[in-house]
Amino acid sequence: MRPGVDETHDPALTSWVESANADGSDFPLQNLPFAVFRRAGSRQAWRGGVAIGDQVLDLAALQAAGVADGRAAEALALAAGETLNPLMAAGRGHWQALRQALSRLLRAGAVERARLEAALVPQAAAEFTLPAQIGDYTDFYTSVHHATNVGKLFRPDRPLLPNYKWVPIGYHGRTSSIVVSGTAIRRPWGQQMRPDAEQPELAPTRRLDFELELGLFVGPGNALGEPVPVGAAEDQVFGVCLLDDWSARDLQAWEYQPLGPFLAKNFATTISPWVVTLEALAPFRVGAARRPAGDPRPLPYLDSPAAAEVGAVDLQLSVELQTAAMRARGEAGATISRTSWRHAYWTMAQLVAHHSVNGCNLRPGDLLGTGTLSGPTPAEAGALIELSVGGKRPVGLPGGEQRAFLEDGDTVVLRGWCEAPGQRRIGLGECRGTVLPALR
Amino acid sequence: MRPGVDETHDPALTSWVESANADGSDFPLQNLPFAVFRRAGSRQAWRGGVAIGDQVLDLAALQAAGVADGRAAEALALAAGETLNPLMAAGRGHWQALRQALSRLLRAGAVERARLEAALVPQAAAEFTLPAQIGDYTDFYTSVHHATNVGKLFRPDRPLLPNYKWVPIGYHGRTSSIVVSGTAIRRPWGQQMRPDAEQPELAPTRRLDFELELGLFVGPGNALGEPVPVGAAEDQVFGVCLLDDWSARDLQAWEYQPLGPFLAKNFATTISPWVVTLEALAPFRVGAARRPAGDPRPLPYLDSPAAAEVGAVDLQLSVELQTAAMRARGEAGATISRTSWRHAYWTMAQLVAHHSVNGCNLRPGDLLGTGTLSGPTPAEAGALIELSVGGKRPVGLPGGEQRAFLEDGDTVVLRGWCEAPGQRRIGLGECRGTVLPALR
Questions:
Q1: pLDDT digits (tens, 9 = 90+) for B147-160
Q2: What ipTM was predicted for this assembly?
Q3: 3-state DSSP helix/strand/coil percent for chain B, to nearest 5?
Q4: B203-261 per-position pLDDT tens digit
Q5: Can you spell out the DSSP letters for A317-382?
Q6: Which residues of B fall within a CB distance of 8 Å from A363?
Q7: Which among A306, B241, B363, B392 has most CB atoms closer than 10 A?
Q8: How many helices (H) and strands (E) does chain B have?
Q9: Is the peptide bond before A376 cis (omega within 30 degrees of 0)?
Q10: Nearest CA of chain B to the CA of A124: how many Å?
Q11: CB of B193 within 8 Å of any CB in chain A?
């Protein structure tokens, strides 16, 4: 069941929270993404919240106000606690009921306004934590452009491996080191084999990189041994966040054979606090990227007519880099990449169907990374290793600086948003991290 | 701090639980491994337990009896709940205090006997669950013999990759599908590229295998960004269990490049219920396997004099295979492999130091698999793919059967134990799984 476009998407709808009606807001009434937050510096329990303009609606306070009933009230109770796992487990019926209720309560003219105003917290006065307890984190490799670009650097003789166009390649990542946007990232040490060195050395990485990804939060999940059919796979996706899969390319090159990336990735993964639901993304669904002539048709367990028609999302993405020098000069970051999720070779339904085809069980709150979402042109690459062609052609920045890889003090900000004719723009907020020097 | 041999290891000590004194018991007074259990078929809350002979000592009941004090009482409270994570987090001081107390309480002549008898549950009347909530599961590749044997099959031209003798290779596994001994294993479906086929197909695996491993449960853990030095690494290891890393070799061969094994492994991993502590293993410590002349010395972050002297454990291991036909004839399983952990190329301290050198945080209850613990000779191989040389030389079984890979109805039982002159033998119990046919 794919969420459709309904009255909650009507671009004419406005909110009594005025900031939600401003042009360019990531969080108009048509979005309503979820996070877990509390008042910054307080000892409040963490609680669920919904973004509306520059405010967070405190769902614990909203629940106490008793303004919802039926399924919406049930869903609200599940969303009010210190993780969103219970809401994610509840399934699309509850998600839709809560969205409908929130849309009505926050709409201009809502009679409940007076009772809701006390439940608003300015986002600037809030601090955020991870939206869910993440049981398992899987990272995929859904951009054929990324796979080809990076493959050229690691394996010039065979950039794209024979399995790529058949198998939605993925691997398990580390959950303990997933952090929320704003957490500083310590440059990691690790084994490296430098060109022409006789033996490896332990040193701080010299090739620190970001990866522009999206993360999908799993909904109800499946029992061990019971695959999810591709036609039902989107019912397993609660929503989408931004994800920065920080990577140490020198560690990766030396360690990744034969069992895949390990220490090159597991020192940190940053996600945005806001999870934008599939309901909110409904108006921005588009057909899956067209496969070039000669590419194989997906095997039946990965194939569905719906995937071809509306399996993808035109979710636009950008990467901004601000160096310490730019910050000292009071300059904003420079945009160094622009792309869209729509270019992915594999859709979210295919990822879920593939992940579970062997009976592997997904649980509510599990996180599926898309892999770096590089688009078809060089300017759409989602990592410095691609943008700088393996470090050989550093990216130019304002003020004469350039970057082959990240330097200490650099801040990387990922952003995502959706726009379409006749629709209200919605955004994912930002996913931000600043590089700290390595420990001595 | 490596646990030493103390009075709790005295082979002359006996227990008032008579079955613990029987020759060949896995669980004499000198062992005292932990599990999480309840009376089978009951609705009791899961609770910590300690094995003694053929009984489980119920730690929730023991706590209520008020027979411990000081640090031991604190540790007991941490061990009595539905996971052992709190005990694992407490650290070696608490682990040792609880061991001392349990050893005294269960010793022949203990005055507390009458109060403890009511806290004993026959193991045959108990059911077990996972001993901890496992936040992350990492699987290593510590046997150079396994790496070489399997490498020959997957990459005949370069069996052992250049990084092997420098890097304790590891990758992240799936925690959701870790199950306790006795859980049936459903044969998974997956993509396979058969020899000479034009394209891959989706089918039940034809090359289902076990892997003989040990699992290490992590103790207190480290903060994100703060590596654990090799000299302190064993303080992070609470204890050891048996681990069967079920593997679908045809899925693995097709999917594993370039990001490592995924669906070939994540359909199920079985662990034994009992966790044998490093304290119990103290009398069986031996020097790490001698590296062949010409092998490099480990880099300093992986090198310690203690590792060379007593970094390994002479923990003996076996694999038993019972087919459906053998079971129908009332025959026990046949032992198809015998080896020891002592042959591993990397020690547990090296695994912990490597895993955290980039700042990756380990958390209490995390599980580190050793990888298949194949020994130096063909008979010591820990997986069918090695024993049958990639399926080409099936293993002979009693009654004229043979196995290249596992068939439906096969039961695999891993066992582990330690013996040394002048010491009481201790065991890990068993890790058991039976193969169910694939779903239609």
A1: 999 989 878 888 89
A2: 0.97
A3: 30, 25, 45
A4: 999 999 999 999 999 999 999 999 999 999 999 999 999 999 999 999 999 999 999 99
A5: EEEEEE-HHHHHTTPPPEEEEEEEGGG-SS-HHHHHHHHHTT-PPP-TT-EEE------SSGGG-S
A6: 176
A7: B241
A8: 12, 26
A9: no
A10: 26
A11: yes
